Amino acid sequence: MRVIAIDGPAGAGKSTVARRVAAATGLPFLDTGAMYRCVALSVLRHSVDPNDHDATAAVARRLEVRVDGEKVEMDGEDVSSAIREPGVNSVVSVIAAHGGVRDVMRGAQREWATRAGGGVVEGRDIGTVVFPDADVKIFLTASPMRRAARRVEQSGGDIHEVARSIEDRDRIDSTRQDSPLRPAEGSITVDSSDMTVDQVVEAIVRHYRDKCGEDR
After folding, report:
1. How far apart are CA 20 and CA 9, in angstroms?
2. 55, 90, 100, 127: least CB-packed within 10 angstroms?
3. 192-201 confidence digits (pLDDT tens)
């Protein structure tokens, strides 16, 4: 089972890069952030307190989440667009910090990889906790302002407000008690601040092929 784990902070370009790496290597792709967003969406819809550890974990356990490339289904409903709405953005980091929620999601991520026979998996604790024995572990990062600029290019908004939001997310992710965001042991850090997406993808694919002996 081949696994390429790509971790990194908000706005580093993990999803874009991971999709391209998956296409280049022929491996399936899993956006774990979409899974946490489904929990956040369900929490909002059922008026559950995002700060309630037990209640949010209960929501996660009840959910049936299916991620198939760009398409995300929650209990049979296509929520690919709904999970990207501002309301979800505002609570997902809080919900994702709860250990009970993370336990449920990690189990689902491992099950996905087992069924798929491996894949390119991106998130914030993939190389450290979910797949510590991954063939390739990447920590993808960029400067806060560069990450903010990318978010503004994609979705609009004031760059200073976006930068503050990213810094808040970084603080939550890096200081949470359960699996804080950090480079995994044996990972390679790729700073994409001054790199194009093509350059980042090429570097990761080259490392994968060199390490795993893949010719394609």
Report:
1. 18
2. 90
3. 999 999 999 9
- Phi and psi dihedrals of 77, rounded to 5? -100, 135
Residues in the chain, pLDDT under 70: 214-216
Q: Is residue 215 part of a domain?
A: no
104 and 147 share a domain? Answer: no
Residue 99 and residue 53 in contact, taking contact as beta carbons nearer than 8 Å: yes
Let me know if 116 is exposed, middle or buried by CB neighbors in 10 A (0-12, 13-18, 19+): middle
**In a shared domain, residues 1 and 23:** yes
Residues 9 and 45 in one domain: no
Bridge partners (DSSP) listed for residue 118: 2
How far apart (Å, rounded) are the C-alpha atoms in residues 19 and 153?
A: 19
* Domain annotation covers residue 18: yes
Range of the domain at 68: 33-116
CATH of the domain at 177: 3.40.50.300
Q: Is the CB of residue 109 less than 8 Å from the CB of residue 96?
A: no
Q: Read off the pTM.
A: 0.89
**Tens digits of per-residue pLDDT, 59-82?**
999 999 999 888 999 999 999 999
Tokens, residue 145 = 């302002």
